[in-house]
Amino acid sequence: MAPTIDTTPILDIKEMPEEAHPMKGGDDLNSYSQNSDYQRGVIDAAKTIILEAVNQKLDLENNITTFHIADFGCSTGPNTFLAMQNIIEAVEQKYKITFQKTQPEFHVFFNDHINNDFNIFFRSLPQKRDYFASGVPGSFYTRVFPKASLHFAHCSYALHWLSKVPKEIQDKNSNAFNKGRIHYTGNEKHVVKAYFGQF
């Protein structure tokens, strides 16, 4: 009797969305890394909120040796490095208060589209850092990590990106045509309806 072959998929991972729109790579004048001061300001402003959330909501385990953090939508840096440092400092502080002992080692997973400029990203990775770093390519609209493998997940200025642009937005004959803009800024109800439907 011939052995049967199990054809059950190993992981339940959806396919990548049709479109992927990573930030402009490189480090020239038009790159994301040279034009993301506003986003950095938001990360600075969120530091206090992260500290409070970690203190109030994060359940710590006394016996773990490695604390896993993921940043979804890391782009090309350098803002993600500041965000990860803020998270690590908050977790370290809670470990010291809660257990009066040395905290675990930290492993940070930086996630973005497969088309993200990970070369620039890893070249700009701080030499002096309190964590191990790994890149995890793939859309966060799919599974990119095993179940229960993270202790902390972070996303700043990435969750609002849709998996694809609504078709009506790009159709010049549609009431929802967004006149070539890449974002919504006005009060056109048809544009809002198209984005809301896609969301």
Structural description of this entry:
There is one protein chain. This protein has 199 residues and is of the alpha/beta class. The protein is 31% helix and 12% strand. It has five helices and four strands, in the order H-E-H-E-H-E-E-H-H. It has a four-stranded parallel beta sheet, covered by helices on one side. Strand 2, helix 3 and strand 3 form a beta-alpha-beta unit. Helix 1 runs parallel beside helix 2. It is elongated. The termini are far apart. Keywords: Magnesium, Metal-binding, Methyltransferase, Transferase. Belongs to the methyltransferase superfamily. Type-7 methyltransferase family. This is S-adenosylmethionine-dependent methyltransferase. GO terms for molecular function: metal ion binding; methyltransferase activity. Pfam families: Methyltransf_7.
